[in-house]
């Protein structure tokens, strides 16, 4: 795959996924606060979790972006790009709900009172801008010049583009979870 096409794809997927996540903020409060029968997260908790997870992923993405740019001085980008293969299937699995067991760190568990829904929405808008800024700083393939370990689904070392794609796939995974909640909510008996 040509690197500029990959960057455009990641950019587009980020924007599309974040737009779909943002639409959930406009759903009725009763749906957003509905707790599914399995006692899983409400939509509001899922939105908070996406923001929490993005916060920590973006710390690594920003550090990786800076390191990748530094590595342009010591590595031959053309040589690295010639051998690069984007691990699409492994990363796409991140976006599939129930595809594998996922144990998240406690600090990424949503705390309903942690922040207001408008603050979470604003946070997600800022995080999208942050991720897009990192992509914009790496327009010619520089993002492949630094890798960070990702233990989720045994991904191993992934580069900055892959980390950004991971972030979007993580949000995409939770879109499916919110949709499951909405389907269950629609079929739930109404309280008397």
Compose a concise summary of this entry.
It comes from Hymenobacter ginkgonis. It is built from 7 helices and 2 strands; from the N terminus they run ααααααββα. With 192 residues, it is mostly helical.
Describe this structure in words.
The protein has a two-stranded antiparallel ribbon. With about 190 residues, it is mainly alpha-helical. The termini are far apart. It is elongated. About 60% of the residues lie in helices and about 5% in strands. It has 7 helices and 2 strands; from the N terminus they run ααααααββα. Helix 1 packs parallel to helix 7 (about 160-185) and helix 3 packs parallel to helix 6 (about 115-135). The protein has one domain: Up-down Bundle (Four Helix Bundle (Hemerythrin (Met), subunit A)), CATH 1.20.120. The protein has helices at about 5-25, 30, 45-70, 75-80, 90, 115-135, 160-185; strands at about 145-150, 155-160.
Question: Any descriptors?
Answer:
about 190 residues; mainly alpha; Four Helix Bundle (Hemerythrin (Met), subunit A); two-stranded antiparallel sheet; DinB/YfiT-like; DinB family protein; DinB-like
* Number of spatially distinct domains: 1
End-to-end gap: 57 Å
Summed over residues and divided by their number, the pLDDT gives a mean of: 91
Return the structural class.
Answer: mainly alpha
Strand order in space, largest sheet: 1-2
CATH class reads Mainly Alpha
General shape: elongated
Give helix % range: 55-70%
Strand percentage lies at under 5%
Gyration radius, rounded: 18 Å
Tally of individual helices: 7
Main β-sheet description: 2 strands, antiparallel
Order of helices and strands: HHHHHHEEH
Instruction: Please name the CATH topology.
Output: Four Helix Bundle (Hemerythrin (Met), subunit A)
Q: Which blocks of ≥5 consecutive residues have pLDDT under 50?
A: none
The assigned CATH architecture is Up-down Bundle
Count of extended strands: 2
